[in-house]
Structures are given as C-alpha cells and as structure tokens.
Design brief:
Order of helices and strands: HEEHHEHEHHHHHHHHHH
Structural class: alpha+beta
Largest sheet: 4 strands, mixed
Number of strands: 4
Number of domains: 2
C-alpha cells in the first residue's frame, strides 16, 4: 500500500503540513492536488475517530461534497502514526472506495512514523502576552482614545507592512476602534481587498444586504472569490499585537479576524483555535458564530474551488 518514491513522499508531506500549519499525530490526512499548482483543501481525521466502521463510513462520506466542489486532479493520502500499517487497512479501503465513487486518482499514499519535529496542533493560536511595559502603554492609550477611524487601523497596518513596531498609542487606538462590531466588519472588507467605499460604508454602520454580500462574496463565491495575498501578513501582525497587548474584552474582534484570515488561507485548524479563544470571551459574537458554522460545515474558502484563470 505504501509504495511511494522518497522524493515524492517528502514533497507530499511538506505540502500537507504547510496546508495544515502543524504536524499531525495519529491522524489520516487527505489533500487535494491540483496540477496547475493551486493550493487545495486538506482534511484531517484522528485515527481513533475512525475505529468504529459505521462512524468511519459517515465521517469519510462527509468529504464527498467538498471534494466534488474542489474538483482536484488527484488526492494524496497520508497516515501519521506509530501504530504500524495493519490497523490502517480498513480505513484505507474506505478511502479507496470514496475516491473511486468520485472518480478521483490517488496522487500518493505515505506513512509518516517518525517523531514529530514541527509545530503540534496544541501549539496553534498561542499568542504570548507582550511585556508589562508595552501592555501598560497600550492600556493607557486604549483608555484615553476619544476618536478613531478606519484610517487608524490603516496606519497600524502600514507600520507592520514596513517591518516597524506599531507605536503603543496607535495600537491602543486600534483596540478601541474594534469595540464597535461595525468597525470589525470594515476591517474584513479591508483585509479581503474590497473597494475602499465598501469599508467606509461598513464602518459607518451601513447594513445594506447588497453591501454585505459584496464583501462575503470575496470569501465564499468561487466565481469572484479573492485569494489571500502577501498583504495579509501585515494585518495578521497588527491583530496579533492587539491580542498580545489588550485586556480580554478587547481581544474578541482581533481573534475573530485572525480566525477569518486563517480559514481564508486554508488553515482550518488554526482558525478553530482562534475561534475557541474568541468565543471563550464572547460566545455570541456574530462573526465568530458565522465562522464556527462555516468550520463545522467544512466549507472551504471560495478560491479553493474557483476555476483556474
């Protein structure tokens, strides 16, 4: 079952771990492969969850819809376990049946039974608090901030994009700006590259359905979905800093936006960890609840199933 060239095995493993953002343990991963070089979905199951035949059949069947949507050229299957090959036979047979039903080729099948040398799933989403002095400076700025705007957030992102530490007063102003959910929605428009006018209208509290749909389409609609660019890194840096420097009540919006960026970038496990942290503080946050539903349904970002240009 595990006849794969060494170089092929290494490339496949690297692809899977990059998509997941961590090294799985006692898991099976199915990764969509596109010959045009596009990234694709990667689905991971704990091997223990597949032990019961009936439950295994139901879980594996859940992959049918996203695989049909993604339309990959092939699927790579990777087992991460120290338990040997024999216990995997029944699981692999069910995966083979699924791929056969969908008319999909198997790109490779690999067994990874070496010690974990990269980040573990438990390491995902950990944001270490900033130094006491920096946190205090941000808190003072947060409490003193009177007026903020989308431009406040833009300025912080510009500092991060230039590789410069965001000044504490500006970071505090950003944290204060995020207390209004409408401002968080404006940040979504900015992060996804929606027109400036959309972000301004959202910031002002415009609840027009067509406006909301135009922004959400950039995330979900395969016909016009945006692909994350390198610009997202600066947003991620600012949001992480706000979490590291702010009191818990001011962490919900940036944590939720970090979850959005992770999901949009194809890192579902990281998105789930950020959402877990956000919803521990505020369980009913509207965007967090929506993202939780997206993750629970296994819905990929729109660009994953977009036709190649």
């Amino acid at each position: 079952m595990f006849v794969t060239r060494t170089d092929h095995r290494a490339r496949t493993r690297a692809l899977i771990e990059r998509r997941l953002g961590f090294v799985p343990e006692e898991s099976v991963v199915l990764a969509a492969i596109h010959t045009d070089g596009r990234d694709g979905m990667a689905a991971r199951f704990d091997l223990d969850s597949l032990a019961d035949p009936a439950h295994r059949t139901r879980l594996i069947a859940l992959l049918a819809a996203p695989l049909r949507t993604a339309r990959p050229d092939a699927v790579a299957v990777a087992y991460y376990t120290h338990g040997g090959i024999l216990p995997l036979a029944a699981i692999d047979a069910d995966i083979t049946a699924l791929l056969g039903d969908l008319g999909l080729l198997r790109h490779a099948t690999i067994l990874v039974d070496t010690p974990v040398t990269g980040p573990r799933r438990a390491d995902l989403g950990i944001i270490t608090s900033a130094s006491t002095a920096r946190r205090q400076a941000v808190h003072r700025a947060l409490d003193a901030t009177a007026e903020t705007s989308l431009d406040t957030y833009r300025a912080a992102v510009a500092f991060a994009a230039a590789g410069v530490t965001v000044p504490a007063p500006l970071l505090g102003a950003v944290a204060a700006w995020f207390t209004d959910p409408a401002h968080r929605d404006a940040a979504v428009a900015l992060i996804t590259g929606a027109p400036e006018a959309h972000a301004r209208r959202l910031e002002a509290g415009d609840h027009d359905d067509d406006l909301a749909d135009a922004v959400m389409d950039r995330l979900f609609n395969p016909l016009i979905a945006a692909v994350p660019t390198s610009d997202v890194a600066a947003h991620r840096a600012v949001l992480t800093e706000v979490v590291a420097c702010s009191p818990p009540r001011h962490q919900v919006a940036p944590r939720t936006l970090l979850a959005l960026i992770a999901w949009w970038s194809g890192q579902g496990a990281l998105a789930a960890r950020h959402l877990e942290e956000a919803r521990t503080i505020e369980a009913t946050d509207r965007l967090a609840v929506l993202l939780q539903q997206v993750l629970d349904a296994g819905l990929p970002p729109g660009w994953v199933s977009a036709e190649p240009s």
